[in-house]
Amino acid sequence: MFIIYFIIILIIPLWAQMRVSGAYKKYSKVAASSNMTGREVARRILDSNGLYDVSIEETRGVLSDHYDPRSKVVRLSTNNYHGHSVAACAIAAHEVGHAIQDQQEYAFLRFRHALVPVANIGSNFSWILILIGMLLGASNFVLLGIIFMAAAVLFQFVTLPVEFNASNRAMDEVVALGIIRNDEEKETKKVLNAAALTYVAAAAVAILELLRLIMIYTGMQRND
């Protein structure tokens, strides 16, 4: 039973990552009709929303794109910063979607930011407490570890509406500004949807693991 469980939690993120890699690889080879680079797309959307104070920087790595709310910077990986592809446009627009959320004080984004320190503590200490509890047969330690882990799981769960909303904003912007044509909307959505799968997979695995630990704890309680 446990072997099947561990296979499942390994397969889910691997499957999601394969979908992302496949979609990105495919549509990074499809040139966008606007011929705009990811940087130009990001700048266009930022300026159209009055976000002149948000800068754009190139960053190393593949799909390492992100928005930094503290520095007010959209960071795009090299291929997306310079690329003219549908994938580059989609990802750049998605990251700007987070900048727009920040500007408009989107509730779930604010909640996620507030959860960061708690989630970090939960991720770092939950397993230590759980392992101590299991080794010593101390259910109270396991329960404390579960509480810490629940904070990290909540962070993963709150991330979902943040990411989906950013993708919806991205689609609205690239369509409204004429960055993509009608026949490119389907391709752009495929890139954004594939990227969202990684967050869905991470949340699903986190929830499954939390439920497994709760079952372990209830089993320990019955044995006490």
- Number of alpha- plus pi-helical segments: 7
Give the number of domains.
Answer: 1
The average pLDDT value, as a whole number, equals 91
Binned strand content: 5-15%
Largest sheet: 3 strands, mixed
The percent range for helix content is over 70%
How are the strands of the largest sheet arranged?
Answer: 1-3-2
Whole-Å distance between the termini?
24 Å
Summing up helix and strand content along with how strands pair, one would put the structural category as: mainly alpha
* Helix and strand sequence: HHEEEHHHHH
**CA radius of gyration:** 20 Å
Q: Which runs of at least 5 residues are low in confidence (pLDDT < 50)?
A: none
Keywords: Hydrolase, Membrane, Protease, Transmembrane, Transmembrane helix
GO molecular function: peptidase activity
Transmembrane segments: 6-24, 114-135, 141-162, 191-217
InterPro entries: Zn_peptidase_2 (IPR007395)
What is the structure about, briefly put?
This protein is mainly alpha-helical.
Question: How would you describe this structure to a colleague?
Answer:
With 224 residues, this protein is mainly α. It has one domain (2-223). The chain is 75% helix and 6% strand. The chain has a three-stranded mixed beta sheet. Strand 2 and strand 3 (73-77) form a beta hairpin. The chain is elongated and about 65 Å long. 35% of the residues are buried.
